[in-house]
Amino acid sequence: MLCRTGLILGALLLVALAALGTTGAHGVFVSSDPAANSILSEPPRAVTITVSEAVDPASPTLRVSNASGVRFDEPPVVVTLDGRSISVGLAPNGPGIYTVTWSIVSAVDGHLSAGFFSYAVQNSDGSLPGPLPFAPATAAAPISPSEIALRFVGFLGLAVAFGSAVLTMFVWLPAGRDPDAREALGYGLGLQALLLWGRLGAFGFGVGMVGLLLLATGFETPGGLERVAGSPYLLSVILGLGIAVAIFLALSVALAHARSTHPEASRAPARGALILSFAAIFAISLGTHAAATAAVPLSGILANAAHLTGVAMWVGGLAGLVAVRGLLRDAKALPLARYAFAGFSRLAGYAILLVIASGTGLALLLVGGWEALGATGYGWVVLVKMALVVPMIALGGFNRYRLIPQTADAARTAPAVRALGRSVRVEMVLGTVVLVLAALLTAMVPAANLAAGPQVFSLQSIADGIRFDLWVDPYPTVPGNYTFQILLWNVTSGQPYDEGRNGTLTFTLLNSTVSPQTVDLLGPHGNHYFVTTPAMSQLGVWRIDVRLSRGADVDLYTRFHIALLGGA
Ligand code: HEM
Which helix (H) or strand (E) holds 353? Predict the structure, then answer.
């Protein structure tokens, strides 16, 4: 009854997530060059988009067109060496308004992300090429309900297969050495039920992997092996699928032995299934957020694998006990029941420690800070997950320190075993809900990644053979105090240009009656000037005229524009 409740709760949660998936969206866009809504003095030669996760090399699209729809991008779109940026060269272009549309599939988790933004190239006299249709850059990647469902099926299936092998090896077969436990009718049947259940789990794990593979490739694999090699996610899913088949076969052999010969004969294939389940845990840990985000190589994969091992031991063991609980209620099976519950409880203690330690490590890595816990959807899901672990641990503690000791007292064994049966079902329901939340987490963009990549705002302009680099910090979006830095370079030699003397910036808000404001630049220090000023005091497009004296020589002059749009 409680199992059914668990399934219904899980299904309801999936439906709720499905509803969320149709409306909710998340972005992985980090930055672009040119920056979204920037106004450039010189036409760019290429456009580059940087996202928060490595890009599947077969997937990116990047188009650049002007206001009349003429395209300027010159394929191919290339993925940079670090895998997180895509870039396309541009045909010769001039003043105008340009729109960039892009899409990528993450090599880490197979998610599609897409977006668009505009930038402008100002006229050669420094005026604007027309009205600017600027809006905040968009970036979206809808959460896929089918992906969450498939990941959940995969996690549950792997946990059930792993748990069945662990219970067989470390609880059931050792219990068989005690003649009292072994004589119970349920001993042989229980072993078969466990292995059958584990085989069903391996099947579910395989179904989850097939589904994820089809979802990621859309029934095609353009790029073939090369694409798989470039995408840890595809590699992990394909390896997972192969291992699922092997676990299924190993458990089938163990089941055949359990049915026909001495139960001990199923030990070797059950051990094989356990080793294969470990391999599966490592395989799917290759294509996770933790693997992609961790700064220290392998640490993310190891943390994820430790978490999954603890989860599979805990939830998979609970599932195994739920499968055999009917047999354990029989009066003659009470010694066996004592072994089963006490043996699992010991293992669960280690599993919980592993889950909490590794879960905390993953949360530190992927949430990124306390603030993000309450401020992002990802952080909230982690919080709910942590909250659900508390009653799971409380129930486990109650079983271990209250009910299991009662099973040693002959008069109280039967009611204690019945209570243990009920308790593990409740734990299993909670575990199922936490698995759905885990599946949701793996389909979202981690909070730490959303905050990734400090946005850098820079513009360039060339006048009189001198290149002006303008850097603005922080990234300008709203009125406020900004630091402006200017660096000068000799275009032909590429060397710093340090002949400049004092200089000024004049800020003019276009289409307004606000009086222009001129501020002195500090410097030069070699080729470097800077000033911090609140001159950009309102939303709108600001023209910034730069004037630098160079002694007796003619002054240097250039012009930039910055659009303050508010918000993003
Ligand atoms: C202290 C409690 C826990 C914390 C802080 C925690 C945190 C996390 C985090 C941050 C991730 C990474 C998700 C991603 O890839 O974006 C994760 C993954 C996961 N968690 Fe937990 N978790 C906890 C307990 C649990 C429990 C009790 C279960 C199961 C009942 C569970 C099951 C999973 C699963 C299946 C994954 C996916 C691993 C993968 O992608 O290979 N977690 N957890």
Answer: helix 334-367
DSSP state of 343: H
CA of 359 relative to ligand 1 center, distance in Å: 6
Cα of 382 vs centre of ligand 1, distance in Å, is 8
Residue 428: predicted pLDDT: 94
Q: In the prediction, which pLDDT does 48 show? A: 93
Report pLDDT for 1: 42
Give the distance (Å) from ligand 1 centre to CA of residue 204.
19
Calculate what percentage of the chain has a pLDDT beyond 90. 45
**Ligand 1 within 6 A of 355 CB?**
yes
Is the CB–ligand 1 distance for residue 311 below 6 Å?
yes
Domains detected in the chain:
25-140 (2.60.40.1220), 144-450 (1.20.1630), 457-564 (2.60.40.3340)
* C-alpha to C-alpha distance for 228 and 179, rounded to whole angstroms: 52
Q: Is 285 exposed, middle or buried (0-12, 13-18, 19+ CB in 10 A)?
A: buried
Question: What is the helix (H) or strand (E) element at residue 420, kind and residue range?
Answer: helix 410-443
Q: Is the CB of 243 under 6 A from ligand 1?
A: no
Span 417-441, pLDDT tens digits? 889 989 999 999 999 999 999 999 9
DSSP per-residue codes, 242-270 = HHHHHHHHHHHHHHHHHHHS-GGGGHHHH
Neighbours of 93 (CB within 10 A): 15
* Ligand 1 center to 307 CA (angstroms): 7
Q: Whose CA is nearest to atom 8 of ligand 1?
A: 359
Residue pLDDT, tens place only, 450-466: 555 556 788 888 888 89
442 lines ligand 1 (CB under 6 A): yes
Mean pLDDT of the chain: 85
Q: Which band of pLDDT confidence, cut at 50, 70 and 90, is reported for residue 516?
A: very high
pLDDT in tens, 188-229: 899 999 999 999 999 999 999 999 988 877 655 455 556 666
Any ligand 1 atom below 6 A from CB of 304: yes
Atom 19 (ligand 1): residue with closest C-alpha?
Answer: 438
pLDDT of residue 233: 85
Cα angle for residues 35, 40, 42 (degrees, 5° grid) = 125
For residue 315, the one-letter residue type is V
